[in-house]
C-alpha cells in the first residue's frame, strides 16, 4: 500500500471515531443540547462535527485534496476551540480527549504533505 493511502486511512479512522463520539452525544442529549450552558457557538460547533467529521472522512477518498483541507480545518479549529473552552471553564488541558486531539493535529501537520503531493489534480 502507498504511504499516502495509509495516511488518509488513519485520518479517516480518526474522523469517524470523533464523529461517532459527537453522534453519541446527539443521541443522548439531542441536536439542540446546550452542553451544560456552553456558549452558543460551542454548541453549534460541537454538534456540527457530528456531520462534518464523517463528511471529511468520505472526501478523503472521493475528493482527496478537499478532504485533506477539511481534515486540517477540522482538527486545527477543534484544538484551538477546545484550548479556549477548556481554559475558559478552568479545566486541565492534560485530559485524554484534548491530548488525543492535539496529537492528531501534530500527526496531520507532519504527514499531510504526502497525500497532498500524491493528489495534485484532485
List keywords for this structure.
5 helices; globular
Description:
This protein is an all-alpha fold. The chain has one domain (3-118). Helices cover 80% and strands 0% of the residues. It has helices at 3-29, 40-62, 64-88, 96-111, 113-118. Helix 1 (3-29) packs antiparallel against helix 2 (40-62), helix 2 (40-62) packs antiparallel against helix 3 and helix 3 runs antiparallel to helix 4. The chain starts with a helix and ends with a helix.
Q: Distance N terminus to C terminus?
A: 20 Å
Low-confidence stretches: none
Number of strands: 0
- Count of alpha/pi helices: 5
The level of helicity is over 70%
* Order of helical and strand elements: HHHHH
Total domains: 1
List the helices and strands and how they pair.
Elements: H1 3-29, H2 40-62, H3 64-88, H4 96-111, H5 113-118
Helix pairs in contact: 1-2, 2-3, 3-4
Protein name: DoxX family protein
Transmembrane segments: 9-32, 38-61, 68-87, 93-116
Organism: Acinetobacter oleivorans
Briefly say what this structure is:
This is DoxX family protein. With 122 residues, the protein is mainly alpha-helical.
